[in-house]
Amino acid sequence: MKKSVDRNKKIIANEEEVIKKIIKSNPKTKYFATRKGYWFSYDEKNDTDLATPRKGDIAYFNLEVKDIKGNIIYSEADLGPQTYYVDKQDIMMGLRDGIKLMHKNEIVTFLFPSHIAYGYHGDNKKIGTNQSLICTVTLRNFVPDPAAATTGTPAGQNAAGQTPPPATPKPLAVKPTTKVKKDTINP
Which candidate, 147, 71, 136, 73, places its Cα nearest to that of 106? Predict the structure, then answer.
């Protein structure tokens, strides 16, 4: 087990070193590091519409996937328009988090180490084992899930659409006081 952990740490360190070299080799591009362990840069930034997708929203986006050397693995044309139910669908871990950082009509390039991409397994098609990826995402739009809006109840209401009465606190029970017995041997 320890060998596996050490091997994975070495893989991650090597992948991060490669990504840091890519960032250094592009000084005109501003990259942002995330807490999840990946980096991103804005190809087109939207500073006017500041809303971001939330759990349950439906995100519509385009995606291009490249290997860490910039060779296209899946083009936008290969993948076609993508639809993603935010945090309710299984997609690449890095994309799941990265899409929630984006605003409508932004184009963002993500640099994902393999553990945030497809990990040791790959995608069983073109993405190999422990392969870091460069993903360019265009978030075209996102909307609340209409099915969730019709089945959900507004906050503070029960299923019948009524506001429940406020809960009344229970009165504190008064404990009877017991007489303290005095020690008769040692007064």
Answer: 136
